[in-house]
Queue: 2 jobs
Job 1
Amino acid sequence: MSSIKRRRRISELIHEEISNILQFETRDPRIGFVTVTEVDINADLTIATVYVSLLTADEEERQEILAGLESATPFLKYTLGQRVKLRHTPDLCFKVDNSLAYAERIYDLLAEIDIPPQGDDEQIDDEEEVGFSP
C-alpha cells in the first residue's frame, strides 16, 4: 500500500517539476503552449509517462511540439534529476492527452440532442397515456 502512495507522491512531484521546467526554463520555440496534465510512473520508478495537452488542433503542429519535447528530453531529465532526489531519475516518455478533445466532442454531441423540456404535469399526463398509474 505504501508503494502505491509513494508512486503517487513521486508522480505528483514530477508533474510539478516538469511543468515548471517547461514553463520557465526551456527555450525551444516549438514547446510553446504545453500543459502537463498527468504523470504516470511505472512500479520500479524507471519510466515516467508524461501526458501533455497541446493547444492546437493542427496535426502538423502537434508533431512539431512532440518533436520539440523529444529533443528537450535529455535537458528535462537532467534538470529533473537535480531537483528530485531519487536513486535513479526516470526516463521520460511524452504522450498527447486527448481527454480534453474527447470531452469537447461529447459535449458537442450532447448539445446536438434536441430534447424538449418537460414539466411535472406533462410527465404525469404521458405516464397516464401509456397506461401507468401513479
Job 2
Amino acid sequence: MYAQLFLILLLGCTPVSEKMGLSEVQEFIRKGSSQAVPITSVLSQEMIAKIDSLLLGKLTLDAAVQIALLNNPSIQVIYKDLDIAYADVIQAGMLENPTLNATVLYSEEGTGQHTEFSIEQNVLDILLLPLRKKLAREEYNQVKLQVGDAVLEIINETKTAFFILQANQQLTALQKDV
C-alpha cells in the first residue's frame, strides 16, 4: 500500500515536455508556406542577432518573412496563447491536493489521548479527470491550429507586401529609364 501511494506521489512530480505540439505546429506551417519557423514566445539574443544580420543584408523574400516572424509582437502573443493552452493541458491532468486532517483529543480525566488522522479527496474530481484532460487536449489542438493559421497569415501578408514593394521599385526604375 505504501509503495503504491509513493508511486502515485512520484508520478505527480514527473517532468513534462515543453515542446508538446510545437513540432505539429511547425509542420503545419511548413506545409502551408515551405518556411521553417522558430516557435518561441521569447526573443533570444541569437534571434535578435539574426534579425540584425537580415536587416543589414539585401532584402529578399525569405529575409522579409524571417524578419516578420521573428520581430513581430503579435506573433509573440500568439505563442504565449500556445504556452497557456499547454499549461491548461498539464493542469487538467492533475488532481486537487487531498486534505490531511489530524485530531488529538485529551480525556478530562487525564487517562490519555486519542489521535485521529484522515485524508479527504474530492471523488468527483477523480471521476471527471479523463473528461477534463480530453477537453484540454482538444482546446490545445484548436489553439495549435489558430497559431499555425495566424503565422501563415503573417507570412502571406509579408509576401504580398514584398511583391508590392518589388513591383513599385521596378515601376520606379522603368519610369527613370523613360
